[in-house]
Amino acid sequence: MPSLLSPLPDARMGEAFTEVLTRPGVRVERIVSLGQATPPDAPMVQGWDEWVLLLAGSAGLRIGEGAEIALAPGDHLLIPAGTPHWVTHTAPDAPTVWLALHLD
């Protein structure tokens, strides 16, 4: 049976995205980060809702004008379509593993 937590791709040079499942209107991907953050002047803005679940590691997210949200394994949240958001940090010494559900 496939695992979302092993084996993990090397994310030292950049986040690694793996498509897990695609169906009409829904896409699930695993994201592996290692010390990455979104540049302050380049927020991510998507044309679809994204629900994210942190599976391993630690991270920070800022959504819109809100304060940074610290995430630990098991934490999840919804990022509405069209909302600027930033990954403020991910753990630099161990992989951070996300499960992202993209909803068209």
From TrEMBL:
Task: Name the coiled-coil region(s).
Answer: none
Residues of the Cupin type-2 domain: 48-100
Q: Which domain of life is it from?
A: Bacteria
Q: What is this protein called?
A: Cupin domain-containing protein
Name its species: Sphingomonas canadensis
